[in-house]
Structure formats: C-alpha cells, structure tokens
Amino acid sequence: MFKTKRIIQCIDTHSCGEPSRVVVGGVPRIIGKSMKEKYEYFKKNLDYLRTSLLQEPRGFSNMLSAIITEPTREGADFGVIYTSATQYFEMCGDSTFSVTRALIETGMVKTIEPITEISLDTYGGIVRIRAEVDKGIVKSITYQSVPSFYLGIESIKIPEIGDLTADIAFGGLWYAFIDAKQIKVDIHPNNMGTLVKIGMVILGEINKQIKVEHPEDPRLNKIELITFYEKDPRLGVNYKIVNIYGRNSTCRSPAGTQSAARAAVSYGKGELKKGENFVIENGWIGSQHKARVIKEVKIGKVKGILPELSATAYITGMYQAIIDEEDPYQNGFLL
Predict the structure, then answer these.
(1) What span, in angstroms and rounded, lies between the C-alpha atoms of 255 and 235?
(2) DSSP letter assigned to residue 180
(3) Which of 63, 126, 238, 317 is the most exposed place for a label (fewest CB within 10 A)?
C-alpha cells in the first residue's frame, strides 16, 4: 500500500507530435496577483510538482506541461503556467493548442459551434484563441501570440565550427535562426544527432557573444533555442526547421514561439506581407504550423508584430499521478 503525498489530475495531449501534460487538479493554490507572481510562486514553492510530473519515471526530458490556475486579468477564462521537464516558459504555443482542446472536450469551457473562443492569462499576456468545433470535436485551433519582434542579424564565432550569422528574434522566447547551409548539414531525421550536437555547441556559446533583453521585461534576457532552417521549395511549405534547446532537447513540432519569432524575422526582412499565410514544417516528423502577421505593434520602443498561429492538438489520455512519500524518486530525475 502506497503512502500518498499528493494525487494530481492531468489530461495528456500532443500538438503536432509535441507531448504536453495539462494539469487540471490536485495542485495547491498558486498565489499571486499577476501571472508573473503566480509563475514565481510556483517556481519557488511548488517546483517539485513540475519535476515529479514531467521528469522520469512519469515523463521524459522533452515533455511539456500547462498548469491550469485562476486568471488574474479581467476577461480571461483560465490562467496557465507553461513548464517543461527542464525549465519554465513565459509562452508555449504547443501547450496553448493542447490546453484549448483539453478545456473544450472535457467541458471545462462552454462549447459554441462552429467557433469557441477562449482567453488564457499567461506570463506573456492574454492569449486569445479561436477553435473550430464540429459536433463537439475540436478541429483547427488559432491563437494570437504575444507581440514578437526581429532584433537583427548577428555574427558569432563558434569554436570548431567557424563564423556564422544568425537572425535573432523574440516570439515569446528568444531564438537564433541559422541557415543550415552554413553548417553544411541537411535537415533530415538521419542527421538528428549531428544537428542536436552542433545546436548545443552554438547554444553554449551564443549568449556569451550576443546580449538580448526584452524591452518590457528585462528578465527575458537569454537566447533559449537555436533553430536551423531551410527554405523549402515545395508548394505549400515555406520553411523546414528544427529547434534545439537545453539538455540536448529538440522539438517534435515547429513550436509556437518559434513560428511567432519566424514570422517576425520574415516580416522584418520583407519576405512576408501583413495578412499573408505561410507554413513552417518540423524537419523530424513533418508536422506543420500556419502563421501570419495580423498587425504591427510597438513593444516598448521596438517595432514588432502581432502574429497569429494555427495548428491542432489531440487528447491521448487521462492521467492521475500519485506521489508516494516513500518513493525515493518521487520528485523525478533526468538522465
């Protein structure tokens, strides 16, 4: 017989292949007058729940999570804290798609066909979502991401690789976009190990050479992901990409924050017009995001865009996590 410390209710999902565990019950009250305060409170006082739910033996290094809490802004339906097995995110597109399907198909929000609208209160601001619903089933999901912007082209010197150029942009997280031609490695599943290894080398060096800081939140001051990209000549696909981040991790989906940042880069370089649709494909499994620029905005003194992203998500299971006080690995581990 186990000695229960806590029982957590979760809805397991994936969006474009990226797994996300949506936490809907069993978490103590998350205190804070703003989502930033709630984020910091959870990180300081309840982080063991993140590691318990997302790390081994219940999860793995690439698993994401969205923790549902009360909203702090008027008009929002729920608050969301985005996390992963290794870190916290101010914004996460994959978990936003996943949360939407979970909330609608489990009856946590009122379903209105053909379009159900949801507003999520997040660290990065209000995220407004439109979900196409047919006979109670969620189809395409579209949301307005956080204001995003293109910082510009930067040169970096990487030991054993050489001189590279990177487009630096913010889409909820900071990204460095590097044309895969520069490293002479094609984006293909057979090259996953090589691209992850090179990406981690670049990620380890880039923040030493390039300083970034969000104009409205100085805490957002680190490039979190390296994105290798190829322009894709196929009809209906604009870019093929792979994202590399901490602990040798790589996204299964294009990643919503990447798609927002890519939209900012393409718009800033004159490659994309306002209202024009473009498609980004994950180079590992072929999953896709659609994106477009809704309007120009100002972020502090920086010119940026408001991007709109579309994809879908699926519920894969209902999970009840039991944290046993006598389990020596109750709070998780990573290899």
Answers:
(1) 21
(2) G
(3) 317
- Taking each helix axis from N to C end, the angle separating 256-268 and 93-105, rounded to the nearest 10 degrees, works out to 130
Instruction: Tell me if the pTM is above 0.90.
Output: yes
Asked if residue 272 lies in contact with residue 293, where contact means CB atoms within 8 angstroms, the answer is yes
pLDDT in tens, 14-49: 999 999 999 999 999 999 999 999 999 999 999 999
Indicate the pairing of strand 302-311 with strand 314-324.
unpaired
CATH numbers and ranges of domains, the chain: 4-144+314-324 (3.10.310.10), 149-308 (3.10.310.10)
Q: How crowded is residue 26: how many other Cβ atoms within 10 Å of its Cβ?
A: 15
Distances (CA, A) of 333 to 8, 48, 60, 220, 249: 18, 11, 9, 27, 15
Q: What is the mean pLDDT of residues 133-153?
A: 94
In terms of Cβ atoms closer than 10 Å to its own Cβ (0-12, 13-18, 19+), residue 273 is: exposed
The pLDDT of residue 2: 60
Cis peptide before 189 (omega within 30 of 0): no
Sign of the four-CA dihedral 322, 315, 278, 273: negative
E strand map for 44-114: 64-69, 78-84, 88-89
Q: At what angle do helices 47-54 and 35-45 cross, to 10 degrees?
A: 70
